[in-house]
């Protein structure tokens, strides 16, 4: 086996082995908590949706890549290709949108409870599910190209503006459609990355200001406050940094491919690895920083779970603990 093919096989199998169980665990655990506690905090609803779309990304992209790397050929026909590619593109779009929503939601929660911030806290917190459904509807309508330009890989001649992805070809036919499609979604991704970066920057700023304000509190309470703050911010900040790095590299490579008439398979494989890395690896961050997911199952049967930071000083916990509720 060639080194490139071996490396490709190992990469995609690793992403499948990590991504499928990790996202499935988050989905099942939050579903179990919802059944036991009869409710789910808005932040955990966002995390649950994020795990679902990430699960679909790994399912629709990493698994076909893994099967192709093992030598399995002609697995999908035209209809299956359109279904798989449409699922992947919508799920990938939802992944960036939901991650951005998560960072913006946390930003709103820790902002001062005055004026516009107070209004946003009330509206966003109580309408998280509605916002997610609206985002989903928009993304479902934005991807006609996944249906129009996709067909099963075959020996017939394709145009120079074709993206070859394992069992499927995405043939844009003309240079204009190739550029417009690529530029539109690259700009969209960079806008959402910029939005989540701004929100995360504000989170860090508020946490630093809050840390200064609790310096006069006795050390034991201050330590509890810092623990709450850092646990709350770590989940959002780490996810945003991970997304920015991985999808940022993916989009840079995508923009580079727009300048090429024929994209090499190695370049395509590298982009797909980057695109699947965040959906596959983000469950590690979510599970490691969310106490609800770390809670043992038997403790959930002891009535309603108390807030994870119920012992903390109210002066030092503010709203930043919402990411871990």
CATH architecture: Up-down Bundle
Number of domain units:
1
Tell me the total number of β-strands. 3
Average pLDDT, all residues: 78
Alpha-carbon distance between the two ends: 48 Å
In order across it, which strands form the biggest sheet? 1-3-2
Name of the CATH class: Mainly Alpha
The CATH topology is given as: Rhopdopsin 7-helix transmembrane proteins
Walk me through the structure:
Helix 7 packs antiparallel against helix 8 and helix 8 (219-257) runs antiparallel to helix 9 (265-289). Strand 2 (162-165) and strand 3 form a beta hairpin. The protein has helices at residues 3-37, 42-69, 78-110, 115-126, 128-141, 145-148, 175-213, 219-257, 265-289, 291-294, 314-317, and strands spanning 150-152, 162-165, 168-171. It is 73% helix and 3% strand. The radius of gyration is 22 Å and the shape is globular. The protein has a single domain (3-324), classed as Rhodopsin 7-helix transmembrane proteins (Rhopdopsin 7-helix transmembrane proteins, Up-down Bundle), CATH 1.20.1070.10. The termini are far apart. It is built from eleven helices and three strands. Mean pLDDT is 78; it is low at 303-325. The protein has a three-stranded antiparallel beta sheet with strand order 1-3-2. It is mainly alpha-helical and 325 residues long.
What is the structure about, briefly put?
By secondary structure, the chain is mainly α.
């Amino acid at each position: 086996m060639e080194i490139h093919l071996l490396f490709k096989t190992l990469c995609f199998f690793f992403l499948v082995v990590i991504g499928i169980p990790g996202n499935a665990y988050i989905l099942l655990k939050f579903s179990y908590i919802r059944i036991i506690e009869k409710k789910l905090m808005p932040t955990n609803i966002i995390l649950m949706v994020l795990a679902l779309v990430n699960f679909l990304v790994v399912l629709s992209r990493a698994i076909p890549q893994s099967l192709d790397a093992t030598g399995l050929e002609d697995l999908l026909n035209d209809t299956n290709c359109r279904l798989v590619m449409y699922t992947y593109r919508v799920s990938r779009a939802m992944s960036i949108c939901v991650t951005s929503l998560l960072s913006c939601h946390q930003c709103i929660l820790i902002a001062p409870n005055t004026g516009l911030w107070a209004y946003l806290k009330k509206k966003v917190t109580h309408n998280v599910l509605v916002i997610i459904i609206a985002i989903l509807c928009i993304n479902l309508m934005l991807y006609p190209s996944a249906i129009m330009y996709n067909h099963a890989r075959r020996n017939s001649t394709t145009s120079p503006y074709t993206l070859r992805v394992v069992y499927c070809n995405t043939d844009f036919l003309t240079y204009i459609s190739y550029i417009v499609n690529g530029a539109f979604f690259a700009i969209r991704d960079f806008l959402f990355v910029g939005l989540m970066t701004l929100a995360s920057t504000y989170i860090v700023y508020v946490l630093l200001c809050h840390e200064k304000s609790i310096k006069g509190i006795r050390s034991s309470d201050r330590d509890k406050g810092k623990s709450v703050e850092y646990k709350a911010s770590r989940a959002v900040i780490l996810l945003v940094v991970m997304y920015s790095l991985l999808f940022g590299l993916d989009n840079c490579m995508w923009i580079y491919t727009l300048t090429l008439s024929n994209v090499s398979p190695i370049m395509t494989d590298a982009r797909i690895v980057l695109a699947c890395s965040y959906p596959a690896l983000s469950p590690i961050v979510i599970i490691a920083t969310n106490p609800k997911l770390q809670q043992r199952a038997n403790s959930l049967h002891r009535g309603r779970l108390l807030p994870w930071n119920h012992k903390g000083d109210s002066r030092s916990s503010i709203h930043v603990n919402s990411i871990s509720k």
